[in-house]
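Exercise 7. Given the encoded structure of a 278-residue chain, write a plausible sequence.
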């Protein structure tokens, strides 16, 4: 089941912040606006019991969504679609769709953990390889003693494993933040179809974040995060990912082509306006 598209949080809290890059939705939020919106989602769940979906599109996800209608519609229906990657911000600037901040899923997880530790929020970590979620949970608990890691579960994005994952989450009790680390689109599709059965306030697809937290992969340097180059950091550390990064070349080409069409269209509009005024 895809989250209800008729009342996405971004439209309620911050009207006119939706942007579109190559036909895929991305929201123009600052860091503080994004964190405050997620706080509002947690409060909304307490009042109305609704699960909220947060997605962090990057150029690779945009390319996936262009080829996958289900993923594109899911991003359009999410409560937040935050800009993950300097490439997406560059594209937005070229296409007249400005994006003020790069908000990677990994950095978002850390900032939320720090923010939620002071109010005793309950988190659940789902996905990654065996043992990774447990180690990631211990790291978060050590860094943020006020944060409750209510449970962890490995599972898989396969439908056959959904029931076990839902049972583990239910056994952990009400959850404020669910981090799902199955990679895109598996993690987003898992959240969408299991949404009606989860007592969870906010679910976020976080890709390789649990690997970073567990020490499976070295955490990117601060300058890498600030420049939105985590994808490049992971490529250097894991060269086998190079085939996936070929999508980025196609992304750049498509953005440049769309930028040229936009410039031509604007010149034509200006010419027509001058003709009408003369």
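Solution.
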């Amino acid at each position: 089941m895809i989250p209800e598209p008729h009342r996405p949080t971004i439209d309620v809290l911050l009207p006119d912040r939706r942007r579109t890059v190559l036909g895929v939705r991305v929201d123009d939020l600052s860091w503080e606006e994004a964190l405050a919106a997620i706080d509002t989602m947690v409060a909304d769940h307490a009042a109305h019991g609704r699960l909220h979906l947060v997605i962090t599109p990057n150029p690779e996800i945009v390319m996936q969504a262009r080829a996958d209608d289900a993923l594109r519609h899911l991003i359009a229906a999410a409560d937040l679609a935050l800009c993950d990657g300097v490439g997406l911000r560059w594209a937005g600037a070229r296409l007249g769709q400005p994006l003020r901040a790069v908000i990677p899923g990994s950095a978002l997880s850390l900032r939320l953990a720090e923010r939620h530790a002071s109010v005793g929020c309950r988190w659940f970590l789902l996905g990654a390889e065996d043992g990774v979620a447990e180690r990631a949970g211990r790291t978060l608990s050590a860094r943020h003693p006020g944060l409750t890691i209510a449970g962890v579960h490995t599972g898989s994005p396969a439908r056959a494993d959904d029931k076990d994952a839902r049972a583990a989450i239910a056994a952990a009790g009400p959850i404020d933040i669910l981090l799902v680390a199955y990679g895109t689109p598996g993690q987003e599709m898992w959240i969408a179809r299991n949404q009606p059965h989860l007592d969870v306030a906010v679910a976020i697809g976080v890709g390789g974040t649990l690997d970073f937290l567990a020490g499976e992969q070295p955490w990117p340097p601060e300058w890498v995060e600030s420049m939105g180059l985590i994808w490049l950091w992971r490529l250097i550390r894991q060269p086998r990912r190079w085939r996936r990064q070929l999508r980025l070349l196609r992304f750049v080409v498509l953005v440049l082509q769309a930028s040229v069409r936009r410039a031509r269209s604007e010149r034509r509009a200006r010419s027509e306006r001058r003709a009408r005024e003369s």
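Remark. The longest helix spans residues 242-277. Students should compare their own answers with the one above.
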